[in-house]
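Notes to self, Endoribonuclease YbeY:
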Amino acid sequence: MTLNFEAEVNVPFDFDVEALAGEVINFTLEHEDFPYEPEVNLTLVDNEGIHAINKEFREIDRPTDVLSFPMLSYENAGDFSKLEDDYDDNFNPDTGEIMLGDIVISVDKVLEQAESYGHTTKREYAFLIVHSMLHLFGYDHMTPEEAAVMEAKQKQILDEMNITR
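result:
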């Protein structure tokens, strides 16, 4: 797996953000039986940065905690069987890795939400990465049924990693 990591802001966490991101991404890949070597981009920004991205790409004029930009299309969430059908579009010709997509996380929101929910910044950061990875696999939470599936997967992955509240 290639993790293209960039922190555009100072990150005041007491853990190695890039190393934890790699662990969480790899665990999520294995948990979901993702059959390819992927490339994932992760950028850490502040509320101002994510606000601008949210406004530009989603036309929502406020900051959010995480944004996911999947590069792949799925007929059904978590069904990876047809990804090779668009080999030229889905795979990086230089590395042979499948391009999963981009994750953008607001460091400010990690701090705010960890405090608000009463858990560690490590747990909040890991949660946002798992959440975003599931979006990169085609999962969503627009309906109660979709949300239930996604929430169960998030909890199971974090519990199995022993990153709990």
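- The first helix runs from residue 17 to 31.
- Residues 2-160 form a domain with the Collagenase (Catalytic Domain) fold (CATH 3.40.390.30).
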